[in-house]
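ingest -> validate -> predict -> emit
validate: passed (alphabet ok, no gaps, 353 aa)
predict: started
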Amino acid sequence: MITIINRLRRELFAQGLDAYVAVRNARYLAGTDAASIVIVSEQRATMLCSRLELDRARRDSSIRDVRAYSPYRTPLRRGERVKFCKPWQLIADCLRELDARAIGFDCVKSASLRKLRAAHKASYRELPGVILKMREIKSRQEIAKLRMAARIAVKGMRCAAELIEVGRSELEIAAEAEHAMRRAGSEGTSFSTIVASGRNSWLPHSTATRRRLRRGDLIIIDLGAKYEGYCSDMTRTFAISPTRKQLKLVELVKRAQKAAIARVRDGVRASAIDKVARDFISRAGYASSYLHSTGHGVGLEIHESPSLAPDSRDVLRKDMVTTVEPGIYLPGVGGARWEDMVLVTTGGHEILA
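emit:
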């Protein structure tokens, strides 16, 4: 995490800031979700955490200056140092120590910000984009974690595929897939697992229900694992005794995805990747049935920048990780979506799995 903090320090210098207060991005900077807040300056990086998380924060992070707070007074253990205060009060103490006069932050509640301004007079600027832009480019360690999360998702999908049969419920398939991912090392799911069959399959964001699989169903399974905080996202479409039209939908999204992934490389506009997939599906006559963007970045959160959408201004850069997931949703027939995570490289791409 030291490399990430040094990158942030360069941004501080560029923005003319003395310090940056990260709340939403504390996990990103500290390398552990035990962190509540991370304050970075040229001199040092300080992690603030709840007293309940103090031992875990010290164990899991490379940040050595760890300070704990508690909103109420209770006896301390031998050698334990805790400030009995609200988080904003501890932030103010740290900023006073730094004598910080120009301060950036990503996400501070308005009430806490008012109190912070009163406690430590300085210039405060809401600059969430500073870190969000950094998060687009994954480090070597982040890529390794994303690759592992993707591999775990593959195991969940294999388990789900083995359960596709008439009479099996969507909820049962979701539960077994999640169990398989847990057994493979997942910390949990990136989002609520989608198993959408029959009429549910033409709802892009359906959930797993008690509905049981029937003949003539298309079944969309969209799942993701978490590995050391990093997410994965994978979708496949299955069928039970499908019609020719249903098979055509599945084949179309697979071919559209393949064409779009082939264009992924450093320097390509994200909107251009969306256009490849959208044009492919439009030529087949299903333009109005392609209801969402073609992909999104993945990292500590399941939806990050860049956005592979028609109106996106993002440009793909080396070491970005994004999904590519074209879909067709046709009421009365069924839905089909095919999704993988793709690492952008200098000369092309790598599918993470």
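DSSP finds ten helices and 19 strands in the chain.
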